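Order emerges. For instance:

***
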Amino acid sequence: MKIIVTSIFVQDQDKALEFYSETLGFVKKHDVPVGEFRWITLVSPEDQDGTELLLEPNNHPATKEYQKKIFAEGIPATMFGVADVRKEYERLLKHGVKFTMEPTEIGEVTLAIFDDTCGNLIQIMQK
């Protein structure tokens, strides 16, 4: 068994698609109409056959509440691995990304957390 798709709740699928593809650099894999929403997935440019990230609409009241509460508590919705957190931090700052935690060494890893503009905090990590 392996993980093939993982979801992140977003307030606006179009805005999320733009941020995750243009700012973060993920590649759109699927964009299929499903009723009033779309099945939009992205993949890492380095592993286009790897795990897909689904931009899931947060239209259900439970998802809105969940998203709002973990954001307010400073809890990242997901984590992405990067080769160099400090380099990625500088690159994203140039794109106007707002960080809630600058690169910080915690044991054997370096972490940083940013706001994805779609209702989530995202953690990047370097091992």
User: Anything to note?
Assistant: The chain has one domain: 5-126. The first helix runs from residue 13 to 23. The beta strands are 5-10, 27-34, 37-43, 52-57, 78-81, 99-106, 109-115, 121-126.
